[in-house]
Amino acid sequence: MGGADFDTLFANDTEKKFEENTHASLISSTKETVRKRYRLRLSAIAEKTKKSLSSFKSFSTDLSAIGVNSQDDNDDLLDLEVTRTELDKCIEALIDRSIEVVKQCISECGLTSNDIYRVVLIGGSSRLNLVEDR
Question: Which is the most buried residue in 12, 27, 53, 131, by most CB within 10 A?
């Protein structure tokens, strides 16, 4: 599991939050190529938001870069406030699953956590507050 997994989950969560707030679909096109392009843009926005939430407790996400139209073309609807708590809740299951895999590997090797003297975390997701806290 890596950053792209978190970005996808967070993009899905952001889309759902937008739809709950506006009662409109963020990506309403029926053309598959257009939907893929919008999803890529949304994933990029989710990644930027995720990185920002490593430093800040909340971040205003500008969804206008996706290139979709809001229900009444009100640009205020395309600004979505996201909190670190929301990000943590969204990715928590993946973090927990990663920890369980590591515990299982340690156990299968006949070791305990006391036998591990150093853990090296690599990649951008290792800087997420939730990862550091666990």
Answer: 53
